[in-house]
Amino acid sequence: MKHVELISHNETETLDFGKTLASLLKKGDTVILSGELGSGKTKLTEGILSYYGLADEISSPTFTIVNEYIKDDMKIFHFDVYRLEDSSEFYAIGGEEYFENGICIIEWGEIIQDALPKDYIHIQFEREHTDENIRILKITSYGEKYDRLLNMLED
Hints:
The protein is an alpha/beta fold. It has one domain (about 1-155): Rossmann fold (3-Layer(aba) Sandwich), CATH 3.40.50. The protein is about 25% helix and about 30% strand. A seven-stranded mixed sheet has the order 1-7-6-2-5-4-3. It starts with a strand and ends with a helix. The mean pLDDT is about 90.
């Protein structure tokens, strides 16, 4: 387990971080995004999608639970599990079948903690109280491959 803390001063920096992160992700990777409403989770996802040229297609999956995006042979699954009671509802929609089939980005992933793969990246978004634009991104890796990925983010 490794921890990295980044500061985003505005939406553009959050988008840019999403693009950088996307450049390191591969099929089968899972990224969990946590933080209060409006803290930057969907903006980071937009950055990941824009790396693949899909930013114009983004929509919040709040009411559908998962949106699927495809670019060439890469699938990106964007989940918002906020409305799920627990992981049993995630299993009911076949959620675990997505993990190996593309990149999974899961907003509010702590709700389905016991359904998550053993290896993933968790990004906690926190607002900075003195400046409404600043976000503190606390990134934690679970699994050695993500320890290496976080090392690359620090460089």
